[in-house]
Amino acid sequence: MLTAQTEQNQRVAASDAQRGMPYFCPSCREQVILKRGTRMMAHFAHRPNSNCRPFSESESQKHLTGKWQLAAYFGRKHVELEPYLQLLAQRPDLLVKREAHQLAVEYQCSPISAGKLRQRNQGYHAYGLEVIWILGEAYLQTITSVRHAEKWLQYSDKLGWYLIFWETRQQCLIVWHHLTIDGLGGLQGWARTSTGNQVGKRTPKTLASVQKLIQRRIQMGLHYKNAKWLKLQQFCYEHQRLLQAIPPVCYQFTNAEPLVCESPIIWAALMTVLLSEVPVGSLIRQLDLEKWAAKISTLFDGAQLIQCTTQQLANSWGRQLQRYADLLEQHGILKELAKKSWQLIASPY
Ligand SMILES: [Zn+2]
């Protein structure tokens, strides 16, 4: 931790603390040790074997440094460092105060379970506090798919699906925004730094290579009798189809919403299995799409989007189904009759 209390309960930053003076943890009141050297960022630490809960997680140098830099980034005079919220027995890394508005900032460098994350968010919300999670730079390398990103993804109209990182060397925020899922289930989108640089994130793979990789994934999954792939194949059998026989149009289903921990092409292929059971000429309504999506959802791991509201989740599903219908329309399979109702005019197979 970067701050501790004096005997008179005054908050002191480790960089301003005096050697030889006693300092105490604001939560457990144990005396803490001032650590200030040339190689380390000044900080306080509990004695070994301390049971202190909110402050017990041993902090890395990266975490201490990033937290200090973030306080400067948000403006030192608007920021309370490591405020201990007695009522919650919780301690955000920063509390940013601007006029009547308060924002808890959590700077996460180490792994954290979805359960613990949800619990912390609930705590802040019960306290009437908004919270944002800023990820340590190590996450820049490790977040590549929905599975890695699901816990952290936030949504806004301005940024779409986004993630925020802090980079300690350049001392800037990196925002990945308008994130979508490519054909293979990887994250794609844009990256922008708080210093004003705009960088594209990844170049998409060619259709031919995506096709090859998806077929290979299915082949391997079935060959090694992987439970997930067997379940998907079983579903296709029950509907007189083969998992490998993906309609060509489905390979174009990319830029998907981060709703399912699987390639959106596979998702679209299963939707199309159900669509193809309807005779050509039939009327397809939004409700049918929703019904099919619900039916196949049991075959996939849904993303745990714990940072978003129920409404945001519902909207995301709405966009996903709309995108699917648009794609079929572009390929002459559906014809739009009215808003959210279509006619099936050709078989997708
Ligand atoms: Zn303590």
Q: Can you give a write-up of this model?
A:
With 349 residues, the chain is of the alpha+beta class. Among the domains are: 1-98, no CATH class; 207-344, no CATH class. It has helices at 61-74, 114-126, 138-142, 146-149, 207-223, 227-238, 264-275, 286-297, 310-330; strands at 3-5, 11-13, 23-24, 31-35, 43-45, 79-81, 94-98, 101-108, 130-136, 154-156, 160-167, 172-181, 187-193, 198-200, 283-285, 334-338, 341-344. Strands 6, 7, 8, 9, 10, 11, 12, 13 and 14 form a nine-stranded mixed beta sheet that branches. Strands 3-4-5 form a three-stranded antiparallel beta sheet, with no helix packed on it. Strand 12 and strand 13 (187-193) form a beta hairpin. Helix 7 crosses helix 8. The protein is elongated and about 85 Å long. The N and C termini lie far apart (61 Å). The mean pLDDT is 92. It binds zinc ion.
